Amino acid sequence: MSETATRSVGRPPKMEAPRERILAEATRLFSRAGYEATSLQEVAAAVGITKAAVYHYFPTKQVMYETIVVDLLNRLESHVVANLTAPASPRDRLRALMLAHADFFEANYEAFVTLLHGVSGLSRKITEHETQVRDRYEKMVRGILNDGARTGDLHVADVRATSIAILAMLNWMSRWYKPRGSRRARDFAEDFFVLIDQGLSPRN
Amino acid sequence: MSETATRSVGRPPKMEAPRERILAEATRLFSRAGYEATSLQEVAAAVGITKAAVYHYFPTKQVMYETIVVDLLNRLESHVVANLTAPASPRDRLRALMLAHADFFEANYEAFVTLLHGVSGLSRKITEHETQVRDRYEKMVRGILNDGARTGDLHVADVRATSIAILAMLNWMSRWYKPRGSRRARDFAEDFFVLIDQGLSPRN
Question: Where are the domains of chain B?
Fold first, then answer.
């Protein structure tokens, strides 16, 4: 975000890691009240700095929001990729991806709500940068499915629809799952994996 | 909604089915700009009536929104139930439910976006009435799964997680599916059914 810094205005606040604190408070507010209902003034107040200090780092609320979601998607990818180094088979890699994704979702719950439900309606503009990171992640999921289909490890009737279904199960958790409940997000991800792995039709 | 009518103010507009027209325009606006960013004044302008005329039917924007989502959920249930009379086996009923749900979603796309993404963040209050209709629908899905588990028609490792996964696949379509594309919503629902029916592990 050095482009932003060079164009920024306002005076930097005197605290440690101000940019990170601004993003953390903004994420909390966006996830609760939504993007539209949250003002930069409220973000500034939550951090305990002036609105001008916020402007020093983020010229607009839109840039702040995009920073949160692109950062989240990049960290999700890194976290999941780090969990895919050990499992050898496509089937084990798919399971590892789903569990790692669920773990990361639970640890970053408010940022996921901000990403997936922070802006209401169909009006949200998705930047090219965000689209790139999303596409890369979806390509990784499809890559595992394609590997499994090629090796015979997985029977995939439709790679695209299967990839969409997997991400739907994981993404929709942001709508109903509450962190720190009796069951971890990864427990549900394990259930989802068993469902799509074994299928509902009884095996002989 | 007769309770509302008796408490209403303002003068009724002179047009056919004004209440239905108000709800249709509100749904369109909520689905595009979101609940927060849409005012009753904008709804009135879209219908071509006064704000007072809108108030005659809906005392608040909240009541208008709740009317849209509860009506949608009730109609979804009726549509799906009507499609479940013929199929005999739990497996066929599950498939019929998923296809009918997808058809109804596509035909009521803007209302689904309003229901599932009309309000941003975690702040939306869900009324008891809406909760009842949702619970009834989820219970119907779980009922089919339980029937299948009992008769041996379906192998269900976890009824609750399976029900959540099915609704996640269908609900998440509201986020990525665009009506009137080259593939119908029911085509994707069919793919999702094949996935959870057959599973990814090869069958011998």
Answer: 1-59, 61-204
What count of residues does chain B have? 204
Option in A162, A173, A198 nearest B155 (CB): A198
Query: Does the beta-carbon distance from B162 to A32 stay under 8 Å?
Result: no
The answer to whether B184 and B106 have CB atoms below 8 angstroms apart is yes
Considering only CB atoms, A192 lies closest to which of B117, B165, B198, namely B165
Tell me, yes or no, if B198 comes closer than 8 A to chain A by beta carbon: yes
Over residues B148-177, the pLDDT tens digits come to 999 999 999 999 999 999 999 999 999 999
- For residue B47, what are the CA distances in angstroms to B22, B113, B151, B177? 6, 20, 52, 27
Give dist(CA A127, CA A117) in Å, integer: 16
Concatenating the DSSP letter of every residue in A133-168 gives: HHHHHHHHHHHHHHHHHHHTSS--S-HHHHHHHHHH
ipTM: 0.91
- CB < 8 Å to A157, chain B: 191, 194-195, 198
Does domain A1-59 sit in CATH 3.40.50.150? no
How far apart CA B132 and CA B137 sit, in angstroms, is 9
Give chain A's mean pLDDT. Answer: 92
Structure tokens at A20: 């990170």
> Which residue of chain A is at minimal alpha-carbon distance from B186?
A161
Q: Do B203 and A36 touch (CB under 8 A)?
A: no
pLDDT tens profile A83-128: 998 888 999 999 999 999 999 999 999 999 999 999 998 878 899 9
Structure tokens at A149: 């289909």
In angstroms, the CA A131 to CA A120 distance is 18
Fold for the domain defined by A61-204? Tetracycline Repressor; domain 2 (1.10.357)
- How does pLDDT run across A31-87, given as a tens digit for each residue? 999 999 999 999 999 999 999 999 999 999 999 999 999 999 999 999 999 999 888
